[in-house]
Design brief:
about 45% helix; about 180 residues; alpha/beta
């Protein structure tokens, strides 16, 4: 399975890097391919290293203005013209999407992917990996959106909130078997 992961390129505390590394190892050991932003820095590097060291493949999609930070030993690396093309390519190359901790770029990617799913533009499973409760507030906001009628589909059909990498991967593998 090609698993697209949206996440930060920042150097982060161990409470984020350790679970990210564990999830990456599960991806690699499971024989899956990581599809990611292609960066050789921060949490993106931690995840790419973990997948590659555990035997998984790496498919990166960087963007022109960040090409100098792209990983040089990925199995495949594409350089997009801009962020919009990058997001489209990441989704195109993926069978499933996992949203990990990140900043505004990650949030932008997450909301676009969720909006496209809401409108039936793709049916790929989406998991929000809620490491250290990072997305508790977002989960609460999504629940409010559903409760007050802002979501045209059930929240559980839109996104799965996972507490750890093992439950995230198990959800994706179950979804793949049902497809």
């Amino acid at each position: 399975m090609n698993i697209c992961v949206f996440l930060s390129a920042a150097d982060l505390a161990d409470r984020y890097t350790r679970p990210a590394r564990e999830f990456a190892e599960l991806i690699g050991k499971g024989g899956h391919t990581l599809v990611w932003g292609g960066s050789e820095s921060g949490l993106m590097k931690v995840v790419a290293d973990g997948v590659q060291e555990a035997g998984g493949r790496l498919v990166g999609v960087s963007v022109d203005f960040l090409a100098d930070k792209a990983r040089t030993n990925a199995d495949e690396m594409v350089i997009a013209r801009d962020l919009a093309e990058r997001k489209a390519l990441l989704l195109e190359k993926a069978d499933a999407v996992v949203i990990m901790v990140g900043g505004t770029g990650t949030l932008d990617e997450a909301t676009e992917i969720l909006e496209l799913k809401k409108h039936g533009k793709h049916d790929k499973p989406i998991v929000l990996l809620n490491t250290a409760g990072f997305y508790d507030g977002l989960h609460q906001q999504f629940q409010r959106m559903e409760d007050e009628g802002f979501l045209p589909i059930p929240l559980t059909d839109l996104v799965f909130f996972a507490k750890d990498g093992a439950s995230a991967l198990a959800h994706l593998e179950d979804a793949a078997q049902q497809r």
